[in-house]
Amino acid sequence: MDINDLRGLSTAFLLIAFIALVIWAYGRAQKKPFDDAANLPFADGDVAERTRNEVVNRD
Known about the structure:
Layout: H1 3-25, H2 31-38, H3 45-58
C-alpha cells in the first residue's frame, strides 16, 4: 500500500461521510428541530428565557 492508495481511501471515506451528513441534514426527522431553531429569533421573550434557563441548567 502506497500513499496514493491511502489518498484514495481517505477521499472515498470523506465522500461517504459527506453524503451521510447531507442525508441526515435533509431527512424528515430533522425538519421539526430545524424549523424550531429557525423560528427562535421570532419567539416570545418567555420562550427565549425558558430556553436560556434550560441551557444554563443543563451544565
